[in-house]
Amino acid sequence: xxxxxxxxxxxxxxxxxxxxxxxxxxxxxxxxxxxxxxxxxxxxxxxxxxxxxxxxxxxxxxxxxxxxxxxxxxxxxxxxxxxxxxxxxxxxxxxxxxxxxxxxxxxxxxxxxxxxxxxxxxxxxxxxxxxxxxxxxxxxxxxxxxxxxxxxxxxxxxxxxxxxxxxxxxxxxxxxxxxxxxxxxxxxxxxxxxxxxxxxxxxxxxxxxxxxxxxxxxxxxxxxxxxxxxxxxxxxxxxxxxxxxxxxxxxxxxxxxxxxxxxxxxxxxxxxxxxxxxxxxxxxxxxxxxxxxxxxxxxxxxxxxxxxxxxxxxxxxxxxxxxxxxxxxxxxxxxxxxxxxxxxxxxxxxxxxxxxxxxxxxxxxxxxxxxxxxxxxxxxxxxxxxxxxxx
Length: 391
Hints:
By secondary structure, the chain is of the alpha+beta class. It is built from eleven helices and nine strands. Helix 1 packs parallel to helix 4, helix 7 packs antiparallel against helix 8 (286-313) and helix 9 packs antiparallel against helix 11.
């Protein structure tokens, strides 16, 4: 593994940081999350047209840039620094890889170029447990089970879906929904993926009032909605594809969390250099230095884990969940110390520090919790599996 960045990767990071600095400041961020969509469509258009961000990890044959998941994760680190609300996670990280992996030639040719151009936003309507980040439906942790959710049944030559699912990132605003649904009844249930237009008849969707307003979530109800099967009906291992996508998404989310953690730490360091108590800057007190030094070490360790996970994602190594656990923990620690060291203003709604703390808590609710991410990684590695010792 080469730990250095290529010139292309450095350019992606630099260009994206400059664009977000101009277009996604604190005022623009708050204005965007208050819109019905939860993000600024003009910013999304700029990210697509100037940087090709939605198609960064898509092949050039489908209008993408042709980069790997590593570049997408590095881009997410920059969006995480400013908590940029955008359809990037739902569209480019969750849906696009599944269409690329499972879709028919016609579906890929129709959907992926529009995703790469930014014209088509998409959302994955599947329980978080389906991404296999914290384990399956066995043992002492059942992440949703097979009961409920969305059911699919044949209707002539097509399919209809009935049920509800939530929370779904960008589910309330995405133009395309990729819905995971059960088929075959409970006894012989299978999970398949279906394409549904966001404005299809029978789709009822609402935006959640989420803890983290910068991560828009929707709730979907599907009432006998006509749907198109993604790929073929035979020979598709959808749970395995969801698990691979989940691991890649975890690596991207880990980098995003590291970007947010590093930025809130930078802001805290800047503040303690200016705030005075007893006639001197509080940053000069040894106790404050020690607290920030501990956070710095934690953020740097999480960054190393996130970069490795991003590199390994394209090589079949499943370490995204563990990196995500470390990234979320670093963000929670960094944001918590920021609130404490900012004193009274750190608790106010008007200050931006609280947004970073909510991002940490919100992501842990969606993709964690941290202890389950680590437990799942330990189970996968058989770390604590009892073995017989020969006598």
